[in-house]
């Protein structure tokens, strides 16, 4: 099997500033020197991946992440339709690449012009001076703009503008004498160019590179890079250019003038300006300066085939403009001949096609006598943006696609529109020609690739395989011949698709219109794909095929006139082509594709891939703040208003003068520390520094004295120094924590990162109105950038630091959606409840306590409906992140558990418990949890089902951290209490049906025995009840289960039903009907409604009798200085339960089980995946003594997988993590539940 290579995902990421090597850094520091630092580095990695296609295996060879600069301070803001979400990255067309091979190699397929047979014409010579010779210096199939090493014939096309003397270029035979631009880019003082970084050994690298090596040129928003893929270090750029404001959206390399000492590159910018850059000499010239010819952005730019000087630019106003690199610009207005072509809008409406006899508006013809200045030619095609164009392999025609969904085929030599097609729907984004020029591919917003047969002037197939917009298409010329074609596509769905087609393999959908006509024609012929009407048009009516190859002597009015666009082909009339391969090859949307002889190359759009929210509260009004804007040449004093507009949002980092004065080396360490220890701060924030004033408030100009060398000034776009200003918050600027912020005009704002809630765990995120007194909140309803999930805002870790008064400062906590938060609704996962009641006017008492302790409430997590439902009708059930993510999320606190089990950025989750929800949710999601002693936390402001049973619950991934939050937020003793003297092992609940689960429980109890030195005592509660019945009560010899048959469940249902009396009444009064309630809560309400007051009193008395008996006979429930005993209880399901199974119908719970026992007793109940504070600490000490984990991971696996009976790689264990790899279900690593009496050990 033949092997090929795949180089994919040439991605754009925000790279950290890095030192060339660790050794160089260490050596410089050791010698007392400043270590050399590269401003931003490309990163080359070698991930392992592959895929199989018919011709062999493609191996993911290399992944090169190209560094992208942060936005310039003066850049215009990027408008986001989401009013809360703000993305600081600038607009970009993604990463676009050009490939250049100075050593032309032959391709497997070479175009030699269309045959007489395929055209049905006697001759293809349209011009008397045409010949079929091939220019051997050219490389690059114009089926793709950048095919570097797939040479094709120029066919018989004359040069563009041939016959116009003013366009005749003086082409020296000696490449060294070619004309170069005037200006030296490395010494330029132009405000358009920010900086040019040339590799110090550029000349040497160019001389030593192999002749068949591949150059890569890449535009990445404000940056442009030139790289050498034949170098040992591909990530080390040869030249990097940073532009001040303009974004380079496209570029092209001239394949005619290329040589070892001359490389002409043109670049198109978001400002409409164009740069001609000669790479080897680092010289450049600006064209269309300040938009003098056309001020709209350049969507695509290409050298005209065969020309040394002329290139074509597609501007976003729907214009195509031809420029000469060596001509000066002049103010341009359409010439008179262009005006005669008529009004575009009058003829074709929004499409903006011209009404001239040629089908386009010719604002300036290439045949114009006025060729002293640019433009050489200008054509208007549409009033909507042109997205892409491609030259045909015979270099005669142009395929143009635009936002209005049009594909236009143009004879650009004659300046005539030949054909006009439309997409299935939406705009077209990309286009290319087949190597033989017979077919055109387009891709766009309809998620389809369309194959157009140009000679037949028809659509022959649509290709379905992408799940989002198609952004780039290309043929693989090494896998194309006269009958079979291979092409590829990439899209915003991150997929690479490969496609094979031949005309004979295309089949119309069954029952499609015209199928009968197609079936009678010769199989495999082009005609077999066309309907009768299409065949008539193609063969007898002089369609685009005949127009494109008509004799040039024939009048265009008679035979070349454009007859109007084709209607959209119905799906039933069009063959559907599936891909031969579809594979996600990147984590970000793809935007570029290219085939080389050895590889497939792709690039992506992403810049940083992080969404942010700018908190609206102004922290500092910096009206008097002075800025010190740094350039490589000088330090410039000026006000912040001079460089930052009020509508801009700029990421900055705030540092103290002490941190700045510590010296350059320490400053870099500080910036690295900020990025490495905070998930909000990225390198994009560190390009601009805001310096907090000293305690005296005096401006310290000397702060910058250590940074006067170019190597340090280049690191930052600017530094703003707070010399004074009015503070709108409670804190002075000097007291603001160092860290990431957003500068909006003269105002500083906190930066909050928006995390996508892809587990559907949250009802919504929460954002405090006041950062310094977070009492009132607003719900955050913004969507993630992919549009598939809501987002949850979290602040920087550096905004909060724990103190004795605020021990939970900065702890990110989620709340079960039964807790009120002022300003936000409590929904209970019920649409009826949500539409009835307004936002809460006060936060729950426990929420206020958390806020007073410094906690950050990030959002409210989903609860089952009214904390008992199972059907999830009004909202979608949270996703359990454990295992394959299709296991059941159980318990009313399932949203809280799922959020903590799945999101590393979350620290704790708060739930609630009536009858075992905390234990059940913890067991299913592999977490530590505590259901504390009844009454240890206030339930004011919490939607309570039963005051006799309900309590707050806490989830944690780490036992030590769980002890920390419980100690400070719960009203429990925190003194020294003696450890338990007994371990109660209730045989009523053991052994478990699952032997593996039972074995885990036994192992844990053994470890607990060894740690405490306390005996395990096996007790049957039922037998003990018979042997020692409650004294002074009339149990009448009833068994424990008979006596407690109804009491727990019926009393709970009664309290649950009457807790909702007000809701049902209010809803009926408001809407005149009963509210919708799911089946499970309806079932419980039905039981509760039938419990009389007398029956309820009996049930309560029975439970008090049981509790008193348990306290005196089994183990004490009260404690002062010691804990008499702990009880082990089973927890979690017996095996994996999958969410696609129908929920069990609600049933009556009778008697006492392990789930109901802690709520009945009001005792603390702690779940450990492997009880009040004492049991948490006891569990942690036991696990540590055993060498077992006390911390669980997020995501698929609760613990690292190891090769032992528990399939867990223990702390310090040498077991092979990869051996015997088991994917446990959610509770497969649950050990036990320990129930205890004490809140402290």
UniProtKB/TrEMBL annotation:
Signal peptide: none
Keywords, in A-Z order: Repeat, WD repeat
Record field: compositional bias (Polar residues): 83-92, 135-150, 534-554
One GO CC term on file: cell division site
Pfam families: Amidase, WD40
Keyword Repeat listed: yes
WD repeats: 421-462
Record domain Amidase: where: 804-968
Region (Disordered) residue spans: 73-92, 125-155, 168-187, 333-360, 534-569, 1201-1241
GO biological process: carbon catabolite repression of transcription
Compositional bias per record (Low complexity), positions renumbered to this chain: 345-354
Annotated family: Belongs to the WD repeat creC family.
Subunit structure: Interacts with creB.
Function field: Component of the regulatory network controlling carbon source utilization through ubiquitination and deubiquitination involving creA, creB, creC, creD and acrB. Required to prevent the proteolysis of the CreB deubiquitinating enzyme in the absence of carbon catabolite repression. CreB deubiquitinating enzyme stabilized in a complex with the CreC leads to the expression of genes such as those in the proline and quinate pathways.
Protein name: Catabolite repression protein creC
